[in-house]
Every structure is written in C-alpha cells, then in structure tokens.
UniProtKB/TrEMBL annotation:
Domain of life: Bacteria
GO cellular component: plasma membrane
Main location: membrane
Lineage: Bacteria, Pseudomonadati, Pseudomonadota, Gammaproteobacteria, Oceanospirillales
Pfam families attached to this UniProt entry: Na_Ala_symp
Listed name of the protein: Alanine:cation symporter family protein
InterPro entries with a match to the protein in the record: Na/Ala_symport
Organism: Aliikangiella marina
One GO MF term attached to the UniProt entry: amino acid:sodium symporter activity
Sequence intervals crossing the membrane: 13-37, 58-83, 89-113, 140-164, 176-194, 203-224, 230-254, 291-311, 338-360, 376-393, 399-422
Subcellular localization, as worded in the UniProt entry: Cell inner membrane; Cell membrane
C-alpha cells in the first residue's frame, strides 16, 4: 500500500508540483535566488549579530541546515545513485536550484505571519500562513497535525536507523546500544527548548559541514583527472544516454526529485517552521538566508558525496553495495579504512542535529493547537525518545517508505498553500526591492504598509530607519 501511494505521490503529483512551482516562482520573481546570490553573503554576515533574548538569523539558519544536512546528504545520495544511476544527481541539482526560489518564498511568508512569544522567541511556519494568510485555519490544523505525526512516527526513526547501522558496520556496536545513547543525549537538549537547540546547532553544524566539505575536496583534488568524466557520466545518465548502475531515464528523474526534496526540503515547509524563529528587520532577509541553505545542502554537500562515490573504482567497475555502505566503501578506497570511522562520526553528528531539528518541527506543530499544555509536550518528547531507540532496530526499506509518504503529503499541502499566497510573497519582495533601489542598505519591514494582511503587531512593530539606513540615505 505504501509503495502504491508513494508511487502516485512521487511519480506524478509531486514531480509536477515541485518543478512547476519552482520554475514559476523563479521566473515570476525575476530569478530571485540568482540575482540576490551575492547579497546572500552580506545578509548572512549581518545575521551573525545576536540580540539578547532573540534567536539570530544565523542561529535559525544553522538549525535549518542541521535538518537539511543529514542522512539525505550521505545515505540519501547513495540511495539515489544506487536506484537511479548517476543521472539522479543531475536532477537533484535541478530541484535544488529551482527549489532555492521555493524555499525563499516559504521562509519569507513564515516570517511575515510569525507569532511573538512571551519569552522573546517567535513561532511560525506553513500552518500559520495557511491560517492567517489564506484564512484557512482547517488547513493549518491539517498541516500541523500531519507534521507532528510524521515527526513522531517516521522521520526521526530514519535518522536513528542511519546512525545505528553505520555504527554497527564500523564498530560492531549493537543498534540497541547506539539508539539508547542517542536518545539519552537528545533528551538533555530537547527539554531545554528552541534556544538550547539553536545554541547547540550553532557550534556543531558549521564544524561538521566544513569538515565533510574539506574531506570531499581532498578526494576531488586527488582524482582531478577523473572529474570531467564523472560530470559527463552524470549528464549522459540524466537523459538515459548512458547504461549505468541504477535505473534508466525515468528512475533518474524520480530518484533525483525524491531524494533531492528529502535532502534540501525546499517546498516541504519544514525549514519555514525554523525560519520564523529568527529576529530580522525584514522577512526577505531570512528568505535569502534560507535560500542559501538549499544551495549549501544540494549544490555543495550532496555533490561532495556524489563525487566520493562516482570517483571510486568500486562503483565504476560495478558493485551490488547500496545505501550508506556504498559511501563508506567508496571513501575507504580514497583515503583508507579509517574513513569508515570518519563517516560514522559524521553521520552521528548529522543524525543528532537533524533529530533536534525534527523534534522542534513536531513541537511547533503541537504548539499550533496549544502552547500551554506542558503534559502534551512532555508526552511528545517521550515519544521522540522512544522512536529513536525503535528506529535504530528497523529496516531501511520500511523507514524510507514511511518517511517518503509523510514528506509527500506535507510537501503537497504546503505547495498548494504557496501557490495561493505567492501574490503576498511577491509584494513583500517588491517592498524589499524598492527600499534597496531607493538607497536603503538594510530594508526594514513595516507592518502598517500591509494593512490588508493579518500580521501580528508584536512580531513586526513599526520601526524607525536605523542609523545605517540614515547614513546610506545621506550618502546617496
């Protein structure tokens, strides 16, 4: 039944929605992800500033990167290549590039309709812009319920499984022990709330992402003469012109779209839940930052894993190995047997931070219904911890099938909402464009300019132009 439903969702509906919405948003926004690519670094640097009592733009970014950078980058890419051939990587790139625009708009909208909390943090995401932007509370209720259910039933188990199976292969550790230890460490963090999650992610995520990138660059540098052939192999396989390990043309597209979305989450709505927590001067700032996180995930880290696998003689000579084991074996060929330990440790960090991220998503889903029922939140935390242990003992096929189905439903409902709310997102982008065009270096969002929208004044108080803007105006 799951196979049939996933075949319908991923084989027809989502391919059309993801590509159609991504291309539409890209063209209608005048290629926002490319024309603001240079500004991404400037906004990113400005987002490093912390304001007491708030979650910074950078912290929100690393929490979302913690979710995007995980099993999908290492195990997911290996699965895509195993089942779809090298051409699946090409379609992952395409989904990533157009998905940057989709992520931009969903995260911008999450900022517009966010809700201020008493402790200085914010809540927001698809459920909130469905409720306030579309004026369809039932749709927000459906999304929130599905989000909490999917996190509590499949998505966290996938991360736990990936970590535990890697530990078993590298060290011979029984999955039950890995699962229990991971659950105990997770418990220490999640009972501290989003601020503690953000603080942990702020330290771990840059370290693990840069470390994995350095390793990948070393592999590429050591096999530089083979790199052009790998890109040719990916291109030919993407259009069914190369008979390679994995599937044909259709399988390459299917696995590229499926694993691409599962990795970068553009359009899924997950990242929008986290984007809303940032304290920024304009919603577009966080939209730009979150768009950059899709680039980091797909165009950099997924490509690193693909290069590690496709540059290996083991893959090119034909192998029946798949999944995370394929990445480990390929890496061992490049840098020695100790690489299995590195991959295991990297996966452990990836899985750990992704679990923290997923937990927050589930909590945010429950918060849409009630933010005062602490017994409900504590029960959810216990379910998450149990799921970590349970997931470490399951089979890959079962976990991926459950996760794919949940992700598919979330993506479909979120993409439909984005289609209806695109006009609002475009008007917010136009406000940002106009301020930049008038010489304002750091645009600010004034809610009273959008009286037709249901925007919480506590989240967006009317702000005076800051000193930087005054200086920019006087200079211009």
């Amino acid at each position: 039944m799951l196979a049939t439903l996933n075949g319908l969702l991923w084989g027809k509906i989502l391919i059309l929605l993801l590509i159609g919405v991504g291309v539409w948003f890209t063209v209608a926004s005048r290629f926002v992800q490319f024309r603001y690519f240079k500004r991404m670094f400037r906004v990113f640097r400005h987002g490093l500033q912390h304001e007491k009592g708030h979650v910074s733009s950078f912290q929100a970014l690393v929490v979302s990167v913690a979710g995007r950078v995980g099993a999908g980058n290492i195990a997911g890419v290996a699965v895509a290549i195993t089942l779809g051939g090298p051409g699946a990587i090409f379609w992952m790139w395409i989904i990533g590039l157009i998905g940057m625009a989709t992520s931009f708009f969903e995260c911008t909208l999450a900022q517009v309709f966010k809700k201020a909390e008493s402790d200085g943090t914010y809540r927001g995401g698809p459920a909130y812009y469905m409720h306030k932007g579309m004026k369809q509370k039932w749709m927000g209720t459906f999304y929130s319920g599905l989000l909490a259910l999917s996190v509590g039933s499949a998505l966290i188990a996938l991360q736990s499984f990936t970590m535990a199976s890697s530990f078993e292969q590298s060290f011979g550790v029984s999955p039950i022990y890995s699962g229990v230890v991971l659950a105990l460490v997770t418990a220490v963090i999640i009972f501290g709330g989003i601020k503690r999650i953000a603080e942990v992610a702020e330290w771990i995520v840059p370290f693990m992402a840069v470390g994995y990138l350095i390793l990948g660059l070393f592999v590429v540098g050591s096999n530089l003469e083979k790199v052009p052939d790998v890109f040719i192999l990916i291109a030919r396989s993407a259009f069914g012109l190369e008979q390679a390990i994995g599937g044909g043309f259709g399988a390459a597209i299917l696995m590229g779209v499926q694993r691409g979305l599962f990795s970068n989450e553009a359009g899924l709505g997950h990242a929008a839940n986290v984007a809303a927590i940032a304290h920024v001067k304009h919603p577009v700032n966080q939209g730009i930052v979150q768009s950059f996180s899709v680039f980091i995930d797909t165009m950099i880290l997924c490509t690193v894993t693909a290069m590690i696998i496709l540059l290996s003689d083991g893959y090119l000579n034909g192998t029946e190995t798949g999944g995370i084991a394929l990445t480990q074996i390929s890496l061992a060929e490049h840098i020695g047997d100790w690489s299995g330990i590195f991959v295991t440790l990297a996966l452990t960090l990836f899985a750990f931070t992704t679990i923290l991220y997923l937990y927050y998503l589930g909590e945010n889903g429950l918060n849409f219904f009630s933010n005062e029922n602490q017994k409900l939140f504590n029960l959810f935390r216990i379910i998450v911890l149990v799921q970590i242990v349970w997931g470490s003992l399951q089979e890959l096929t079962t976990i991926f099938a459950l996760a794919d189905f949940a992700v598919g439903l979330l993506a479909m409902s979120n993409l439909i909402a984005l289609v209806f709310l695109f006009k609002i997102g475009k008007s917010v982008l136009a406000d940002y464009d106009d301020q930049l065009a008038s010489g304002i270096d750091h645009p600010t969002f004034e809610a009273n300019r959008f009286n037709e929208l249901i925007i919480e004044q506590d989240s967006w108080p009317t702000l005076e132009r800051d000193m930087d803007n005054d200086k920019s105006n006087s200079t211009s």
